Amino acid sequence: MTYRRILLIVIGAVTFLQDVAAQDNWHTTMAAIGTSQTLDTYLSPEKYSGTEVRFLSQTHRHWRNHPQWSSQSSLMGAFLYAEQRAENSNEMGGMLTYDYAIRHTWQLKENWCIEAGGQAETAVGFLYNTRNTNNPAQARAYLHIGPDVATSWRFPLFRKHFTLRYEVAVPLLGVLFSPNYGQSYYEIFTRGNYDHNAVFTTPFNAPTLRHQLTVDIPIKKAALRVGYLGDYQQAEVNHLKYHTYSHLLLIGLVRPLYR
Question: Are strands 160-169 and 173-177 parallel, antiparallel or unpaired?
Fold first, then answer.
C-alpha cells in the first residue's frame, strides 16, 4: 500500500467522522415521571414509595478539531412525594444534579457507534419527613466520578431514520455528605462538631447505577425522544442506610446543533 493510499484513507476517515459528528450534535429537553422507592434510616427505618417527577436538559457535542471525541452535559431536577405502607407518614424530596462526560467515539458501522469515557457528577438536595419533629429533614450532597458508556444505532422505519440510544454510568469514587448515627444538624452546623460527615464512597459502600434507553422519532428537523430512565442511588455510611430506586418514563424533544 502506497503512502498516497494511506493518506487518502486517513482523509476519508476524518471526513466521515466529521460528517457523523455533524449529525450527532444535539440538545434535548425532557420530562420524566414514574415510581420511586426511598429509604433514609436517619429519618425513618421505613421504606417510602411514591411518585417522582424530573426535568432534564442534555447537550451532546463532538469536538470541532477532534471529532472522535465528544462531550455531554446534563442538568436534572427531581421532585419526589412518597408515603409508607401504613399511610400515616409522607416524605418529600428534591434534588438538583449536574454531570459532565467526555467520551471517545468508535464508529463500528455507518449506522452504529459506541462512545466510552468518564463522567463527573455533583448533586445537592433534601428529603423531608412530615412525621418527624426532632430530625424532620435530611440534606443530600455528593460528588461522583466514574466510567460512562453510550451507544447509538440508526435504523430505517416507515421511510424515516430512527435512533435507538442507550447510556449507562457507574460511579467508582466519590464524596458523600452524611451525618453520623445519632448526630443532629445542630451539632454539625451550629456547634461545628465534625464527625466523619464527608465520606469517601466506592462501589463497596455506595453501589450506584444510572441508565437510560431512548428512541428518537424524527419530526421534520427535530425528533421526539421517548424512553426509560432507571436511577439506583444507594449508600451505607456512618451506620446509616440510604437508597432511592427510580423507574421513569421519558419524553422530550431533540433538536440538532449546528456549527
Answer: unpaired
